[in-house]
Structure prediction request, 371 residues.
Amino acid sequence: MALKFTVESFLNLVRQSRLVDAERLEQLVADLPADADSQSVADMLVASGALTEWQVDKLLKGKHKGFFLGKYRLQSLLGKGGMSSVYLAEHVLMRRRCAIKVLPHKKVNDTSYLERFHREAQAVASLDHPNIVRAYDVDREVDGTTEIHFLVMEYVEGHSLQELVADTGPQAFRDVADFIRQSARGLTHAHEAGLVHRDIKPGNLLVDTEGVVKILDLGLARFFEENDENPITLRHDEKVLGTADYLAPEQALDSHQVDARADIYSLGCTMYFLLTGRPPFNEGTLAQRLMWHQTKEPAAIVETRADVPGQLVDVVARMMAKDPADRFQTAVEVGEQLSVWLDGGAATTVPTAPPVAAPVAPPVAPPVAPP
Prediction:
């Protein structure tokens, strides 16, 4: 709740925050009307571009700290979850906008969270592709007794595929094919670098204002050639990682053993979502949905989109095959099939040789009870 300040008290908070250069602040408030109050001054500072609405909201609550992380000025809160908070920020000197993912300070002493956070930084830093959100910096800052870890990334102005479908419903067929083709290209780069994403879903695929798809959130990424015999997922008994609505059957059994084909399955579920407006299995309990990915076929896309091109249905079906050996074996193949369709040819789903990748987990009893 906003507090009531005199104009001078509010301006003192602004000065203490260091958000506005002292000389510029004096110029902005030089001609304030006699009846100005703290809210009208705050509104003026926002209108002038000196402060953001998020900064003003904090200041009006009496908070003048926490607006800077190292050489970055925080502009607004983009999102918040149990694992991290993401802020829009600006480099103080370069004026470049970026997104900063901050690990909650309460999680710093939790080695699982901290190691996973560092794993994401390592994963993103190893990649450089137009269809993957780029990383610029990773750092830590100590404020008194509080240790803050943060990852600085490319800021993508746009919407996630999840938001796009929520706002406009199932997408046009050519748009779906293009979004998935671009995602496949980004995944190809990650897979060739030895990474499996393990959490491909509509919410982790952003589309910028130019229509370019960017893969983000590599917090669950795993390296193919991982030499650690006691990896994070096993050290903390986290055998199942990912999002249930888009989880490959083998990933529900053991997330640690999956290869690139698990990402292809998840991307297929995402394509299904873009075409129908819902995940393949959008009812039932978490345990039921995990089991259905292993044992049940989703409702036919044609039931929702009677005019869906058969080639696209075939591509989704191949990507979502229960057995990894029956799927496209590489993301390259997915992109090529969609390119053929987009260029007016007939997509084919002829099997190809398997990739050189980490082995798929052997079948074992799933960790959830059947419905």
About this structure: The first helix runs from residue 7 to 17. The domain at 68-154 is CATH 3.30.200.20 (Phosphorylase Kinase; domain 1). The chain has a mean pLDDT of 83.
